[in-house]
Recover the amino acids of this structure.
């Protein structure tokens, strides 16, 4: 019985030669499978290359999905492509020599799965960040099962399914290409399987944005091209609180105490009421109205009489 064949794609930018050499050493130690490797230089010429490996030198950085597609295409053009594609980060290592053989066996037990995802841990073989678990319930990374996403840097994919959906989405450039490929495989009728008992090692890193550039401090020296400016005037003091008893110059202050004479005139109402209207001519207008109101006589109301003439009052009940 022939051994399974696996084509491995490694993407590099020559930025971590020590990690790449260690990862490729674990790759060459894989047993139970026939491995063919291609190292893709994303905008560079690969420097760390295992023996008998293919190389691809891209003229520029086309992004991680584009570089992986270039490696898969180079393996296909080399002739006799393998049934399985394995995409490997250049700093990820195999903790055991039978990892690829066990992944292929797991995929054969699940023919409905287009990809098989191993459990990715740190170098301690235990720590698994939640972002590395390809499912919603990531609290238990040791539980296998069907998944709807993938961790792109360590995943085994069927070659025919990969080619049928067009490979990685190169327009994404970086991140989320695993979700996109998984969903397109689902639309094509495939599924995914998370083999939690098979582990891969990867350095533990925290995804973070680069620090924002701090603008240089402004020079304290004056600008010689700018003419000298006059000094700014001192700020004016805040306005004082207005005193309503002293409204301003030219006005009499408000009366703070009652006028005894005015108070006596108001209280001397009977004298105005007893006076005749002619005697009130010299009084102020307000006082004349008050006194005249006291001399009003009320006419008695006549009883209601029937009349045949129509009433012009709209409020009249007739």
């Amino acid at each position: 019985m022939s051994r399974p064949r696996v084509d491995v794609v490694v993407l590099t930018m020559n930025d971590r030669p020590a990690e790449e050499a260690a990862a490729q050493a674990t790759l060459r130690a894989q047993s139970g499978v026939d491995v063919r490797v291609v190292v893709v230089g994303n905008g560079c010429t690969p420097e760390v290359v295992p023996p008998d490996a293919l190389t691809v030198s891209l003229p520029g950085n086309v992004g991680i999905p584009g570089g992986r597609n270039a490696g898969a295409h180079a393996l296909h053009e080399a002739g006799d492509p393998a049934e399985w594609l394995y995409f490997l980060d250049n700093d990820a290592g195999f903790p055991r020599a039978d990892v690829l053989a066990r992944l292929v066996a797991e995929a054969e037990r699940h023919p409905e799965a287009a990809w098989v995802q191993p459990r990715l841990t740190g170098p301690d073989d235990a720590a698994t960040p939640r972002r590395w678990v390809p499912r919603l319930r990531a609290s238990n990374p040791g539980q296998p099962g069907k998944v709807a996403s993938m961790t792109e840097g360590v995943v085994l994919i069927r070659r025919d399914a990969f080619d049928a959906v067009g490979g990685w989405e190169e327009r994404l450039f970086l991140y989320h290409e695993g979700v996109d490929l998984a969903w397109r495989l689902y639309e094509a009728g495939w599924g995914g399987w998370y083999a939690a008992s098979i582990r891969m090692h990867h350095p533990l890193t925290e995804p973070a944005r680069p620090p924002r550039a701090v603008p240089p401090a402004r020079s304290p020296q004056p600008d010689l091209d700018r003419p000298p400016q006059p000094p700014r005037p001192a700020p004016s003091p805040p306005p004082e609180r207005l005193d309503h008893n002293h409204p301003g110059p030219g006005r009499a202050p408000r009366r703070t105490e009652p006028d005894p004479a005015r108070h006596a005139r108001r209280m001397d109402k009977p004298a105005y009421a007893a006076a005749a209207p002619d005697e009130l001519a010299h009084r102020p207008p307000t006082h004349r109205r008050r006194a005249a109101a006291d001399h009003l006589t009320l006419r008695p109301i006549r009883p209601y009489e029937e009349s045949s003439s129509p009433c012009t009052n709209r409020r009249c009940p007739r």
Observations:
- Helices lie at 17-28, 64-77, 99-109, 159-164, 177-187, 260-267, 269-274, 285-294.
- The longest strand covers residues 191-201.
- The radius of gyration is 49 Å.
- The chain has eight helices and eight strands.
